[in-house]
């Protein structure tokens, strides 16, 4: 089966945290995806627009939302980062291909732990909103790691979900040495073990920078003793 291409119009480009852009695009009626999947952007080189390469971005919107939502953390020297900063604008038309990916929630009755840093939060927004809107009753804990409070984004939406759903819990983790927040700070790895009641009935989903993903995946398997089939990870560069 041939994976389709779509030409989509950018409807929003906003800097929502230091070096983090929120992007929205019109969604064609024929684009169907599952929460946790991604699209490939055809990204032109700013210095040579004829030079085009694909870049993967997780879909942060739910299948029921009217547009497509993405979040991108800028990387110095990165092709997509330079394109977003210098070329992409509201009204720009970009070609995308997809959807792709098997980073999907497993249909079981397990407690769910989500661990994300930075833009790794994207697939979890789609999964959590979609699940809760569908009446999900499983216990879900979202650990969102950033360095400092100014690096946060979308947390107000998750706080609102926490207020409306007693099975969803948000944990903000600040890893900066001088994080300007009150209370305890630390990396996600510091807090995660406290929320595992039964290793056999807990699923761990991890998304973020490859080093963080590898560390938490290893922790889940070797230190916490989660079964291999209960640990699901997706890294990005």
Concise account of the structure shown:
With 237 residues, the chain is of the alpha/beta class. The protein has helices at residues 79-86, 122-133, 155-164, 188-191, 210-223; strands spanning 5-17, 20-26, 38-45, 48-58, 67-73, 93-100, 111-117, 140-146, 168-174, 202-208, 231-235. It contains five helices and eleven strands.
Elements, N to C (H/E)? EEEEEHEEHEHEHEHE
What is the 3D shape?
A: globular
Helical percentage: 10-25%
* Count of strand segments: 11
Query: What's the number of domains?
Result: 2
What are the segments in which pLDDT stays under 50 over at least 5 consecutive residues? none
Main sheet summary: 6 strands, antiparallel
Give the C-alpha Rg. Answer: 18 Å
| Main β-sheet, spatial strand arrangement | 4-3-6-1-2-5
Helical run tally: 5
Q: Look at the helices and sheets and give the structural class.
A: alpha/beta
Q: Which strand-content bin applies to the residues?
A: 35-45%
First-to-last CA distance: 28 Å
The CATH class designation of the largest domain is Alpha Beta
* CATH-level-2 architecture of the largest domain: 3-Layer(aba) Sandwich
Mean of residue pLDDT?
93
Output the CATH topology of the largest domain. Answer: Rossmann fold
């Amino acid at each position: 089966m041939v994976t389709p291409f779509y030409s989509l119009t950018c409807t929003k480009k906003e800097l929502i945290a230091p070096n983090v852009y929120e992007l929205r695009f019109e969604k064609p009626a024929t684009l169907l995806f599952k929460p946790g999947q991604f699209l490939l952007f055809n990204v032109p080189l700013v210095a040579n627009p004829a030079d085009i390469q694909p870049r993967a971005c997780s879909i942060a919107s739910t299948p029921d939302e009217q547009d497509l939502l993405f979040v991108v953390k800028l990387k110095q020297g990165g092709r997509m980062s330079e394109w977003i900063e210098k070329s992409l604008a509201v009204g720009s038309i970009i070609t995308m291909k997809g959807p792709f990916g098997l980073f999907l929630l497993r249909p079981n009755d397990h407690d769910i732990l989500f661990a994300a840093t930075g833009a790794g939060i994207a697939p979890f927004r789609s999964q959590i909103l979609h699940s809760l809107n569908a009446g999900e009753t499983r216990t879900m804990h979202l650990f969102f790691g950033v360095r400092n409070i100014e690096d946060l984004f979308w947390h107000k939406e998750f706080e609102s979900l926490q207020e409306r759903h007693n099975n969803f819990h948000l944990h903000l983790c600040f890893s900066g040495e001088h994080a300007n927040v009150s209370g305890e700070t630390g990396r996600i790895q510091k807090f995660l073990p406290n929320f595992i009641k039964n290793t056999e009935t807990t699923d761990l989903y991890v998304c973020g920078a490859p080093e963080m993903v590898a560390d938490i995946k290893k922790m889940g398997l070797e230190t916490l003793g989660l079964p291999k089939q209960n640990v699901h990870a997706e890294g990005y560069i």
